[in-house]
Amino acid sequence: MAAPHDEDARAPLLKVDDLAVEFPVTRDALFKRNVGVLKAVAGVSFEIKPGEVLGLVGESGCGKTTIAKSILKLLRPTRGQISFRGQDIWAMDRASEFEFRRHVQAIFQDPYSSLNPRMTVRQIVGEPYVIHEPGMDSNQIRKRVHDLLDLCGLPGRIAERYPHEMSGGQRQRIGIARALALHPEFIVCDEAVSALDVSIQAQIINLLATLKSELGLTYLFISHDLGVVKHLCDRVAVMYLGRIAELAGSEPLFARPMHPYTNALMEAVPVPDPKLHAGQSSAPLAGEPPSPVSPPSGCSFRERCPHAVAACGQAVPQLDQLEPAHWVACTEVEPAVTTM
After folding, report:
1. What confidence score (pLDDT) does residue 339 get?
2. Buried b (16+ CB within 10 A) or exposed e, 286-311
3. Cα dihedral sign for 219, 225, 231, 234?
4. DSSP 37-66
């Protein structure tokens, strides 16, 4: 299946086409007898244009981080293709891969475990220069590190401190500084604020938005917090059990979600002032996500969907364009435009 695309004429910076990642399920620790296959990602396609922020949301276990690992070349997919600037990242030679890793960086979820506790801040942020620019001397690296810390709102005096001396927000800023060291084009933010206090989350989100604007960055922003996604992302892909259920611009998605699962996610968002929604009832989503080892036939959401009919169990729904740049995988909605 071709990746859904918007009407923007720019060539995509990153393109994911029919990505699938499966893991064998084994029994017996000694003989490793295969008893099934866990389908973590089951045919995901999307594009990200330069300067865009694409949000990837969904319940825990839906495949968001697995996609991130495949994009970062940390996990080889079972099938499908991931292209960066038109080049298949899993078909790169060594020189091309070395260059790819300069341009694609990551900000990880846990600022407590993603930094080496035995290295100082200067060593952590400066390590990319040691690897990718061996000609730089220590004074040049020190200056670059101080510049990066300043860019991320940190005082230069912390450069000789260790991660355990920092707060959670400071550690995440250090992780951001490290990601920016080699002037990347594309950054994968994997739950980059979920481990932080709410007040600190706002600061980090504002920092990411400022850096995007000033440096022309492109993000894949993975989160389960719809409020954060709405604030930062240009487009949003909603995932359920390894597949994309809905893909649209942030404003139309939050104004008019079409997939029943997206609606359920929206209704689960806490309301600051309950009086604004007085009289409106929203039943919680019933049941638990099915096992990715033995997913139901047809639509994987049908067992929890309040609108499911018999036809939902017949075939896996494909993403159809229902409105301009608004894609939905639901057999109960007739597409307005035929694009597949």
Report:
1. 40
2. eeebeebeebeebbbbbbbbeebeee
3. positive
4. EEEEEEEEEEEE-TT-EEEEE-STTSSHHH
* C-alpha atoms less than 13 angstroms from C-alpha of 229 in its C-beta half-sphere: 27
Q: What is the DSSP string of 147-166?
A: HHHHHTT--GGGGGS-GGGS
Q: What are 255-286's pLDDT values in tens digits?
A: 999 999 998 888 877 766 666 655 555 556 77
Distance CA 84, CA 186 (A): 9
Tokens (6 digits) for 66: 């697995």
CA 28 to chain centre: 34
Instruction: List 54's β-bridge partners, or say none.
Output: 220, 235
Alpha-carbon distances of 106 from 114, 208, 219, 278, rounded to whole Å? 11, 13, 9, 42
Residues for the chain: how many in total? 340
pLDDT tens string 10-19: 799 999 999 9
How remote is the C-alpha of 30 from its chain's centroid? Answer: 36
Q: Residue 288 corresponds to which tokens in the numbers above?
A: 């638990």
CA distance 66 to 60: 11
Q: What is the DSSP string of 83-144?
A: EETTEEGGG--HHHHHHHHHHEEEE-S-TTTSS-TTS-HHHHHHHHHHHH-TT--HHHHHHH
Q: Do the beta carbons of residue 117 and residue 164 sit within 8 Å?
A: yes
Tokens of 258: 């079409």
Distances (CA, A) of 204 to 47, 107, 113, 164, 198: 25, 11, 18, 19, 10
286-316 per-position pLDDT tens digit: 777 888 888 888 888 888 888 888 888 888 8
Pull the structure tokens for residue 313.
Answer: 């169990």
For residue 217, give both structure tokens: 């960055």
Rounded distance between C-alpha atoms, residue 251 and residue 9, angstroms? 20
CB 189 within 8 A of CB 233: no
Query: In the chain, what is the straight-line distance between the N-terminal and C-terminal CA atoms, in Å?
Result: 8
